[in-house]
Specification:
Radius of gyration of chain B: 20 Å
Number of strands of chain A: 0
Order of helices and strands of chain B: HHHHHHHHHHHHH
Distance between the termini of chain A: 13 Å
Radius of gyration of chain A: 21 Å
Shape of chain A: globular
Oligomer: heterodimer
Number of strands of chain B: 0
Helix content of chain B: 55-70%
């Protein structure tokens, strides 16, 4: 055993919660029209499911080789995004780029699946996940320690930025009005769908009243990500069908707001980092 | 205030956190060191969650630290190890979770002071019940193996990085901000001076003492680290006394270097970081983490963090110098 099964199960539950929250963020972003960083939330869904499967074999979904290929692709993707931002930024700014931790997360996932896959292949196909890796020897364990140190360092840094009074990632957004759709950048074919969904979430009333994003803090760079272009309502374009807010509208607004808070993304990243560091350490 | 002097700057609160201005939000040198301490606590917690810690071996390891200690120290260790042995899952999960929470608390600005205070209490408790006071009371301590006990260095760092800035002249380095220059220097002298002393105690100055200590670390380590162990052990073979004396002289120079002029302080801090790194890699094998079963990264990493807290970022006022 690489650890008590209940402990592995607890970490797996945390990862599934992160995946669920990330899925919720994607839906909330879709509903509100704030399609900021869907790649990050999408990757976290995959990571949460994959890590839960590694921790608890009964939750395993895909073979290690498939997961390794998936996260190799996300590593390339985030590597490209970091490289693109590095062209116009100095090292400190680049390190501050919110894609760097996702690059490290993705690379660590590749390492873990390659390491587990190789160890499982050596020990026999009957053993799956971390629960059955007793006695296995992974290759390049030093890399596991390096990844773990990077992840824990980033987790500490994330927590610092999350609690920074100047950015106030959680509080600033949690207290802000509900997000609004980006009609100008939303294809007409999707607009009706978005608006109907927003009605269900109770945000349409705000659109009708203001026609544009009422609070720039929703789009301000927080600890979880860069600035998202604010809604640019085009008066020349129709604002879509008028929809009367449903009875559950008011109740849904805080949920959408909370899901889209950069602080929540940071919390997911911290949980992901600590869990991943734990998995790397017990792999050694 | 001279350029680069480590002190509270306009826009920054005196507890080391930031004011509402954007500039003040950037972590300063002390905050970076606090985050380093937080990350180390997180690593400690994660290591404590390893499967080995849920076996009788962990309780036996705790009980083993009582050996050689005076009865007044040893009996509580044995008692605590007995409790841990009977409730392994609960106690170890509590230990690990506390350490993770300490790391989170130090990194989370509103919880900084309570977390640092709790880390001092926890560190002292673990130093006693988990490390047998690092073996300092019975001559078993060695700077190479982790004296004076890694965990007590967490407490020292928590004191040196405490987020206050008393009124008075600008502090010459981060560690002097909460306790003053004289006390900070005294703590440095005690730490590095004691390490110099431990380097030449009977157990460390034998012909094969250091060699055996380093060579014994190679088991279970990855190839490159085992090779480093073997190379270091070869250098130390039959040169235990000479190596101990050289190490003691280096550590002694570090200890007194903090009282010199600025260039000497910088030299002492650089030497301290270098010696810490060499000890951590060659003597402690990165805390033995890669061999499995490590409960912490050992003292080398923490000694490096302590040294960085003494880096003279500003001009040392003439009144603060002992010699110049």
């Amino acid at each position: 055993m690489m650890g008590p099964s209940w402990l592995l199960g607890a970490f797996a539950a945390v990862m599934l919660a992160v995946a669920a929250v990330s899925a919720g963020r994607l839906v909330a972003a879709r509903v509100s029209g704030q399609l900021a960083d869907p790649d990050i939330d999408g990757t976290y869904i995959l990571m949460g499911i994959a890590m839960a499967g590694m921790l608890t074999p009964s939750l395993s979904t895909l073979p290690s080789a498939v997961w390794a290929a998936v996260f190799a692709a996300t590593t390339v993707w985030f590597g490209w995004r970091v490289a693109r931002s590095a062209r116009s930024q100095d090292f400190r700014t680049m390190a501050n780029d919110h894609h760097v931790p996702h690059l490290i997360h993705s690379a660590a996932m590749v390492y873990m699946f390659v390491a587990v896959g190789a160890a499982t292949a050596t020990a026999g196909p009957a053993m799956g996940g971390m629960g059955g890796m007793s006695g296995m020897v992974i290759r390049v364990p030093t890399l596991a320690l390096v990844f773990a140190l990077l992840l824990l360092g980033y987790a500490a840094w994330d927590l610092d930025r999350l609690s920074n009074p100047a950015t106030a990632g959680w509080r600033a957004v949690a207290s802000a009005p509900a997000p609004l759709p980006r009609h100008a950048s939303t294809p007409a074919s999707q607009r009706v769908t978005v608006d109907v969904a927003m009605a269900a979430a109770g945000t349409t009333a705000l659109i009708s009243d203001h026609g544009q994003a009422p609070d720039e803090s929703l789009h301000a760079p927080g600890p979880a990500g860069p600035a998202v272009p604010a809604a640019s309502a085009d008066p020349a374009e129709p604002s879509g069908p008028a929809v009367v807010p449903g009875p559950g509208a008011a109740a849904a607004q805080p949920v959408v707001r909370a899901l889209l808070a950069p602080g929540l993304a940071s919390c997911c990243r911290v949980a992901m980092g600590i869990t991943m560091a734990y998995m790397l350490i017990i792999l050694i | 205030m001279s350029d680069g002097t480590v002190t509270a700057s306009p826009g920054r609160l005196r507890d080391g956190t930031a004011s509402s201005t954007g500039e003040a939000a950037k972590p300063d040198a002390r905050r970076w060191l606090q985050l380093g301490l937080a990350a180390t606590w997180l690593l400690d917690g994660v290591l404590q969650y390893q499967s080995f810690m849920y076996t009788k071996g962990f309780a036996q390891m705790l009980a083993g630290t009582a050996d050689g200690n005076p009865a007044a120290i040893a009996h509580p260790i044995t008692w605590a190890a007995g409790i841990a042995a009977h409730h392994l899952a609960v106690t170890n999960t509590a230990f690990a979770t506390i350490q993770v929470l300490l790391g989170i608390g130090i990194a989370w600005r509103p919880a900084l002071k309570p977390a640092l205070a709790a880390s001092i209490v926890w560190s002292v408790a673990v130093w006693w019940f988990g490390e047998g006071l690092g073996g300092v009371l019975f001559g078993g301590a060695s700077p190479v193996s982790g004296a004076p006990g890694a965990v007590i260095l967490y407490a020292l760092l928590a004191v040196l990085l405490w987020p206050v800035d008393p009124d008075g002249p600008p502090a010459p380095f981060v560690a002097a901000r909460p306790v003053g220059t004289a006390v900070a220097r005294a703590l440095w002298l005690v730490l590095w001076g004691s390490l110099a002393y431990f380097a030449v105690t009977a157990v460390n100055r034998t012909a094969s003492g250091l060699h055996d200590m380093v060579a014994g670390m190679a088991s279970g380590e990855p190839g490159w680290l085992a090779a480093v162990n073997r190379g270091t052990a070869d250098v130390l073979a039959h040169r235990g006394l000479a190596a101990s004396i050289v190490l003691a002289v280096l550590l002694g120079a570090i200890a007194v270097g903090i009282f010199g002029p600025r260039w000497m302080v910088r030299g002492a801090v650089l030497l301290a970081v270098l010696v810490s790194a060499v000890i951590w890699v060659c003597g402690q094998d990165l805390g033995g983490i890669l061999a499995g079963g490590a409960t912490d990264p050992n003292s080398g990493l923490l000694l490096g963090l302590v040294a960085l807290a003494y880096w003279p970022a500003g001009v040392i006022p003439a009144s603060e110098r002992i010699t110049s």
